[in-house]
Amino acid sequence: MEDQKESLRKIITTLAVKNEEIQNFIYLLKQMLQNVEANSDRVQKDLESEFQSLYSLLDELKEGMVMKIKQDRASRTYELQNQLTACSKALETSEELLETANQTLQGAENHDFNQAAKQIKDSVTMAPAFRLSLKAKVTDNMSHLMVDFAQERRILQSLKFLPVPSAPEIDLAESLVADNCVTLAWKMPEEDSKIDHYVLEYRKTNFEGPPRVKEDQPWMV
């Protein structure tokens, strides 16, 4: 009888321990589900923020470069339009002189021919057509404002999530437990300038006693 009681007590203890383990694991799973949702929301917001920063930077750069093209176009248009206007006026004057010269030549027998010819000669000497530079002040070539973002595109295409850092190595010889305080000394297994600290998470694994309510002490997993 006593043997059966003792055996039953052991079974009860075993079941109680196992039930506690299962309860602990259920709580852990629920906590992990909450953490997955919260952490995924956080990293997604961070991702969207980083991309928004890139979009804003690209828009700013684009606006500046478009403005440069517009300014260059306006400057060249102004110079060419001025030359076009001057040439049009000079051509109009030259055509009038040509017509006058032809008419004067046809009336070479007139008594005032010499005077007319001299006037035409003086007019031609002062004609805008002979003071014009027939070379454009600017070119129509805009190749200095061309772009090639192939390299930048490759860089953007290489964007990816940060690699998971290696776990730090705990230096047991330098670590200390005293006065209800734990001091851990650690070092990086490999030099990494991007990491300057770690967040320490811990759990109690050697708890002995009856099942406890995890919500009261969530750090005890």
Task: Summarize the structure in words.
57% of the residues lie in helices and 5% in strands. It is mainly alpha-helical and 221 residues long. It has one domain. The chain has a two-stranded antiparallel ribbon with strand order 1-4. A two-stranded antiparallel sheet has the order 2-3. Strand 2 and strand 3 form a beta hairpin. The two termini are 38 Å apart. One of its GO terms (molecular function) is microtubule binding. This is Fibronectin type-III domain-containing protein. InterPro entries: Bbox_C (IPR003649), COS_domain (IPR017903), E3_ligase_FN3/SPRY (IPR050617), FN3_dom (IPR003961), FN3_sf (IPR036116), Ig-like_fold (IPR013783). It is found in: Nucleus. Keywords: Coiled coil, Nucleus.
Q: What layout of secondary structure does this protein have?
A:
Blueprint: H1 2-106, H2 113-125, H3 150-157, E1 169-170, E2 176-178, E3 181-183, E4 186-187
Antiparallel strand pairs: 1-4, 2-3
Helix pairs in contact: 1-2
Largest sheet: 2 strands, antiparallel
Structural class estimated from helices and strands: mainly alpha
**Number of helices in the DSSP assignment:** 3
Q: Give the SSE string.
A: HHHEEEE
Spatial arrangement of strands, main beta sheet: 1-4
Distance between the termini: 38 Å
- Round the Cα radius of gyration to an integer and report it: 45 Å
Low-confidence stretches: 209-221
Instruction: Report mean pLDDT, rounded to a whole number.
Output: 85
- Taken together, the total number of domains comes to 1
Please tally the β strands and state the result.
4
Strand content: under 5%
What overall form do the CA principal axes indicate?
A: rod-shaped
Helix content: 55-70%
GO molecular function: microtubule binding
Protein name: Fibronectin type-III domain-containing protein
Domain Fibronectin type-III: 164-221
Keywords: Coiled coil, Nucleus
